[in-house]
């Protein structure tokens, strides 16, 4: 079994920028899963699927294949293209494979937490790739450890592995169902054994999962953009609470859990999903444009141009421009080649972390009144630096428009988020936030505008990050362990006037 740290040795010279500079504003992506069963190039398809899902996790990636007799694994830290090459793919033999991109929500950033997790147990080899977060992780782990279970990682996903291994179910599907009946929270899973693959989604359907087909093979993926890359046909969304069992006997759909009202993540539309994906039956790009149009109707501005904060604000800004009749301009350019670490010159550059990512186009901004559109405002640390950059480039006014309601609550269902204390909207008024980010005006999309893409009732979505209404109860002791990336935040985090 291969376990590699796929990093260029020269990268060891890179250093992290200060916590203030590296804490760019926004919720962070979660994870992406992909699976293929019944194709002679299973590992290669899994590699391409993970490549398409790279936006959902950039910390690590892995692929596990099955040749019908054993499981073969290759995992590494970094981006998909850095971890896999033709030699590695050729070693991952077999007609079935599952893959995972990781951006951790529970557990530290290390090779031992890379997925898919792979074990050998009484039932044979087993691999698991998980997108989500278990809110009763600590309780389950404590119980399992008390019964003698040994954990190799700090990932909540390993709890599911132990529960499956300890089940008395007669089939793998029964074992998985019995295990998942004990967990609470969000999960879209792909499980691989020697001769079958199982895809399953929690009863609320927090995280997306779709089913596709390619020349007789079955494909599962977090988003349809992965199906597009491998030229697979989109069949349908795997339903909340559904388990799909795929083997040489075909595709079997089961519903082993008590039904629940779906609570699909609305933030997938706002930010996470790729704009070319079909999500919950709608194209993400078109949804974001409709939300941008609603934003323009609700909060027009006397301005000359509309500029997005790229790339997540592009579609909403285009919708705002079309609805308002103002010209759409790419007045802020984003570099797509910035890694998570980079070397800063010895003579420090002010706001280096943001400047290396964004650069204003002075020729478009000079003397203009600008409507700046962003998908969401979380801590405000990026906008607090970007807006002065636009003014320095010649913008006469900057009117900030946010294509989502105020984000005032943390997510506990598979998204890496700041603590509630770090979220500006949890404790500050819109006017205070406007002053903090130095905008001439600031307005958020309304509740009605957020759901303007719907023709009917505004049901079936989880919007706890906006409302604080959590569909699955959060234990009192379930807190900062999942918010690991922000524990080192300095004392200036979201501090207005402190």
Sheet of most strands: 7 strands, antiparallel
The CATH topology of the largest domain? Glutamine Phosphoribosylpyrophosphate, subunit 1, domain 1
Strand residue content: 15-25%
Which structural class best describes the helix and strand composition?
alpha+beta
Tertiary shape: globular
Mean pLDDT equals: 87
Instruction: Give me the side-by-side strand order of the main sheet.
Output: 3-2-4-1-10-9-11
Identify the CATH class of the largest domain. Alpha Beta
How many helices? The count is: 17
Tell me which CATH architecture of the largest domain applies here: 4-Layer Sandwich
Number of folding domains?
2
Q: How far apart are the termini?
A: 52 Å
Helix content bin: 25-40%
> What's the gyration radius in Å?
23 Å
**Number of DSSP strands?**
23
The CATH H-level homologous superfamily of the largest domain: Aminohydrolase, N-terminal nucleophile (Ntn) domain
List unreliable stretches of 5+ residues. Answer: 1-24, 480-498
